[in-house]
Amino acid sequence: MRIKFKYFLSILAVLLVQLTFAQESRFSGKVTDMSGLPIPGANIVVKESKVSAQADFDGNFVITAKKGQILIVSFVGMKTVEISAAPSMLIKLGDSSNELETVFVVGFGTQSKKKLTDNIARVTAKDMENVPVSNFQNAMVGKLAGVQITQINGKVEGGVKLRVRGVSSISSSQEPLYVLDGMPLINDNESGSSAPINPLISLNPNDIESVEILKDASSAAIYGARGTNGVVLITTKQGKSGKTKISLNTSAGWSEATHKVSWLNAAQYAELFTEASAYRYGAADLWLTEPGGVFDGYANGKDWRTGEVDTDWQDLALVKGAVQDHTFSISGGDSKTLFFLSGGYNNTEGIVRGNNLDRYSYRGNLDHKISDKFRVGLNTSLSKTNITRIGSDNSFATPLQAVAQTPLAPAYLNDGVTPNNDTTLYYNFLMQQFNGNWDANIFRTLMNSYAEFKIIPELSFRTELGYDNNNQTEEYFAGSLTESASTNGYADANAIQSDKYSINNYLTYSTKFNENYNLEVVGGMSFEESARKRQYVAGTGFPSDDLQTVESASEITAGTSSRTKYNFLSYFGRATVSIMDKYLLKGSLRYDGSSRFGASNRYGIFPAASVGWIISQEDFLKESSAINLLKLRASYGVTGNAGIGNFASLGLFSGSSYNKQSAINPSQLVNQDLKWEKTNQVDVGIDFGFLNNRVSGEIDYYVKKTNDLLLNEPLPGTSGWSSLTRNVGSLTNKGFEFVLNTTNFKNDKLTWKTSLNLATLDNKVTELPGGDIVAGQNIVRVGETISSFYVVEYAGVDPANGNALFYKNTLLADGTLDKATTKTYSDAQRIIAGNPYPTLMAGMTNTVAFNNFDFSFTFQGEWGASIYNEAGKFQSSNARYKDNQTSDQMNRWQKPGDITSVPQARWGRSNGEQASTRYLEKTDFVRLRNLSFGYTLPKTVTQKISVDRLRIYMTGLNLLTFTNYQGYDPESSYDNNGDSNIQKGIAFYSAPPAKTIIIGLNIDL
Known about the structure:
This protein is about 5% helix and about 50% strand. It is mostly beta strands. The chain folds into three domains: about 20-95, Immunoglobulin-like (Sandwich), CATH 2.60.40.10; about 105-235, Ferric Hydroxamate Uptake Protein, Chain A, domain 1; about 240-255 and about 320-795 and about 830-875 and about 915-1005, Beta Barrel (Maltoporin, Chain A). The chain has a 22-stranded antiparallel β-barrel.
């Protein structure tokens, strides 16, 4: 029987179709999180094919696959799962925040943790949530190896110092580059006084999804000229496809100072100063205590002898604070459009009297998929921050200087309302609150848009346009009853507008070839322009204290305005290669130009390279059940620093007045050879994961050497100039970093995880052609840590006569120091006696989840640093001055044979209050940085009220501090020092941070 060929083909086609359907089936399933909540928008892909599906609003999906074929299930922020296709699948995805699949944000792209060849530290929203701070930097303290974060003091707006792997500059900026959603941020302190305002105080921490800190040169060199001090990449929250989610976080709490210093009460003050006077004038001279004498004058009609007056000025300065924070967000979207909207309000009443903050914020993030090839997005943020300010540490109007007042003086007049400024030893700070004000208002607008076009599947083009506008106004008024009484009041107004525009255009090419090679190449350009305008005016003489603006002044005493601008033009490229998923290579190059440098050195080249070897992917370890990851990596790169004045290379002239005639005078020497400060950094590290990644971590060793230091080098006074910015000298930072993450216990009911980080730091100045630079109690010297303390060494008290003693420390012929003691201060030589930077830092975080309860705490510690108390010569001077004294001064020498470290009390006579190690203390500490306890209501309860999640929590900040430091706080320092000043580690009436406890509520609808 013959069959025609066309019939044969038809039969064959039918058989093939039947065979195909016999092999392929439609499988259904559901994707949920570990608690059983559906994950709408989860992606399901058949491995090594183009077949895919997406979960619906209830987490359900249907996909065509062969039975047993591998399905890859993924969702942003969650661990990717591979599972064999089977009927009725239930797939649970866990949090990937500590997994190798976690995607890290890097400069102009992303990279999985497993394939990173860089050292990048990361914290997520989960790590920072519910920490009661007004700025996001403080929420990261203790969680990042090699990153020191310190708020200068306890003022609500206080500046924050974030140091990545030490200090790499002397006179140039020591701050990292902050980048928000790809846009470099304005990070200039615009305070109208020497006390800084944190420039990033306007950001709402609740809007942040993650923060990546680029620590090594391989990661930071893509930002070239500004990567020396590290790069902080901030990513804000985005919407997720699926059901619209409404979240509310509301909390309120109270604060107090972490520590108070013990001061003399009225009886002790009278005893000590009577004794100090007797040394100078004799015991028969009662000029202090006689009726109508000095003490009666202080008491202002009250009887100090019977204890009628005993003012605790510290309690007036450090008060009970309060904090409340309310944030809501709406997020969601579908396969085309994702959105995130949020609004927030924070009110922080400081622990320093008269210091408060209010912040209102809005954020809107939108991403839209126009087609399979074209996506666009717009991120916007608006905020208004109002700050009620107080004086800098070096002003009598600041509350904490009130501790210098004698306790014999009442704080108020007899009416109990009006501050007493008649008989106090110094200006009564309460007068400023009673008859003055100081307000700062910050309006900040952030906008960042992008458009991304996929030219071909492997090649995409992205353009980003960012705008940052920071408007800050400060108005200060001191009425006729304040320290400005002689001018019948004083007022000033300071307005600053800063704008930054940034444009990034870059191509990304990503491909896989020959099955074993993955290549990604990024190349593009970046342009930034920053402009700043300032107007300032001041006046005196006001007809009424109710008229408090400068327009009511009878005399304008000062007025100025200024404008400045600078820009960067950069070209960059990066190539990343992965071979067989185990050999990793990366190289980057950035070519940066800045208007700040001389014409002959305007551009700098910043290369970097890194390699990685995933040993655990080799055949001899690939099947190991104990080792999940073992990766070696190494990197080298060059980064720069451009944190100097906008016109530092130019010879400048300025307008002036001479004999009431306009004139021009030179104001700055020219230096056309000024060039980039560059840091070369080497990093070697090991990443590891054992026992199904229940134990994971990383170990790193790095060396950073900064050359061509940008230094404001002092010049001889005879030159007519005070300093000149030059490239001179070098310094080195090196250290080890260790991170260990463990899952200590895990079952259906209980999970306990620990994260530990340790970091060492060895900082040395290696070259300084001009020799030592000394400023106050600090010195920059070759072979020593930058800004080391350089003071006379205190030797205690002579038990025979109560004289303060000092070690001579003169150099002997054999090269040793003479350790003989002397009472003559000028006979003693200064020595280097410590430094302001810790040599060891550590942090440990524990998180525990038990049924519906959650508990976490973070300890943080620092060792090796010191602080010099510049105020010690007034407040711990054995009654040299009339300032109130710390209570330890009662242990003074009184008779021959007394063994003590406090010299004899001698009013008006020097006896140990000179600058010496007497006022230098180690600041080693361990602090319970934060503790949180929460309870999430069962779903059986919340579903009845149409709530997805309801959590009640209590959080504490700075609850315990273990230290031998006797001052207010081992982290609080003088806020009157600029960032480029080598004077570091100085305390001067510096307020401690707040100890805060809050109770809050999280609701998800």
